[in-house]
Amino acid sequence: MEMNRLKHLYVEELKDLYSAENQLLKALPKMAKAATSEELSAGFEEHLEQTKGHVERLEKIFKALGESPKGKKCKGMEGLISEGAEMIEEDPEPEELDAGLISAAQRVEHYEMAGYGSVATYAKLLEENAAESLLRETLKEEKETDQKLTQLAGNINVEAMHAGSDEESEQGRGHSGKSKGKARSARA
Predict the structure, then answer these.
(1) Cα(120)–Cα(138) distance, integer angstroms
(2) What string of DSSP letters covers 91-154?
(3) What is the mean pLDDT of the chain?
(4) Burial 144-179 (b: 16+ CB within 10 A, else e)
C-alpha cells in the first residue's frame, strides 16, 4: 500500500516537472532575447534545446508508465518565471538585467534539481530503472547548466557592480534624491 502511495506521488511529481519544463520552453526564448550579453543569450538558447530533450525524456517515462503527462500546472515554475518576467519589465540597466537574469535562471535550475532529484529517488525505490536513468541524466544536465550560469555570473556580476559607479560618485554616492528613472533619463 505504501508503494502505491509512492507511485501516485511519483506520477504527480513527474506531471509537475512536465508542466515546469513546458513553461520553461516558452520562457527561455524571452530570456535569451532580453539578455544583453551574447554569451548569456547563447546559454539560454542552448538550454532551450536541452529542455526540449528533458520534455522528450519525460514523455518516454509517461509512455512506459501508461500515464498521461497532462493535467497539472506547476505553480512553482509559474512563480519563478513570473518573477523573472517582472524583472525584465522593470527595464534595468544592461549589466543589472543580465545579473538578474542569471539569478532568475539559477532559481529555476535549483527548483528543477530538487524536483529531478526527488523523482529519481522515487524511480529507484519503485524499481523503474530506465526512468531513473533518464531522470538522472536530466538532473546531471540541470547541474551543469547551473555551473555554467555560476561561471557567467562571475564576470557579469562584477560588471553590474562597476556600472554606474562613475555616476554615483558624481551624485554624491547616490544621495541626490533623484529616483532611478530620473537618473536613467538624465543619462540617455
Answers:
(1) 10
(2) ---HHHHHHHHHHHHHHHHHHHHHHHHHHHHHHHHTT-HHHHHHHHHHHHHHHHHHHHHHHHHH
(3) 87
(4) ebbebbeebbeebbeebeebbeeeeeeeeeeeeeee
Judge contact between 103 and 146, C-beta under 8 A.
Answer: no
Sign of CA dihedral 138, 143, 147, 150: positive
* Number of neighbouring beta carbons within 10 Å of residue 32: 18
**Cα–Cα distance between 59 and 109 in angstroms, integer?**
20
H or E stretch at 67: none
- DSSP letter string, 155-175: HHHHHHHHTTHHHHHHTTTT-
Here the cell at position 69 is: 503527462
Which regions of the chain are under pLDDT 70?
1-3, 165-188
Domain 2-163 bears CATH identifier 3.55.50.30: no
pTM reported for the whole predicted model: 0.84
pLDDT of residue 181: 35
pLDDT 10s digits, 134-186: 999 999 999 999 999 999 999 898 888 888 765 544 444 443 333 333 233 22
